[in-house]
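fyi for ur records
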Amino acid sequence: MKKTKISQLCLGIFVPLALLGCSPSESQSPGGGKPQVVATSTIIADLAEEVGGEEINLTGILQPGADPHVYEPVPADSRVLEKADLILYNGYNLEPGIIKLMNAAGGKARKLAVGEVVISLKLEKSKGEIVPDPHVWGSAENAISMVNAIRDSLIDLSPADKEKFTENAAKLTKELEQLNIWIKQQIQTIPPEKRKLITTHDAFQYYANTYGMEIVGTLIGISTEEQPSAQTVKQLVDTIKKIGVPAIFAETTINPALIQTVAQEAGVKLSPNPLYSDSIGAKGSDGDTYIKMMTANTRSIVEALGGKYTPFLPQQ
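which gave:
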């Protein structure tokens, strides 16, 4: 699908145990009377870019590889939000800093919690608190619902472009439907006893539920703000030894040092390809769109757990 350039805000972002540094830039100025749309996460920005095409001016707040859980907004973000006609955010408290700023910012922008169109899974946080799992995009089926919600919000914003938004969404949905089937087929090539995931943080429940995997352990919980205790690390090492998985997985938005230590202590391979969890990859990487991210993750999982990977070749 033809892509339009997203004007990104390149900002200094704190990631646990690592720093992602960028220099700030302003969003593109309004032009041609196009609706000004702001997306928080890179995943939502990518889907909005596909649906909106050249009919919208799109600004993404987070950079590829940034962690929305711990992102701390800067004044430039407030200015962008105030100028927006529509703000697309994930919701379910994925990006708490941006949500707080968004609710405090002026302007008359419409707001859509794109992720909240999906009924969430529930996860236990610290101290027994039950919270919604925000990582809804882990299932391509959920991504289709998100695309439909983005399409409808853009049509409400700019009815004159309804035909184009509908056409773009239909094309993307067709590819997502094929992706969904392909992932299921790929996971089925993994021996049943090896269809177990151990990752850095609890971001793959939707993926596991949809595609027949089991999450048997994570280093930290639902949010990357959490810090694992020595006891948690030991328990995870013991779990890995007990179940005998062939590999465990790091994630692109989190420093891999601690999960590497876990792999060494458990005597298990750390997959050479970290999984994309809360963000798409940098431009030019194998995960620089939502569909490529899901494809890359599936390939990494299948190859590391003893399956047989075949490339995703969508039919037009």
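DSSP finds nine helices and 13 strands in the chain. thats all i got for now
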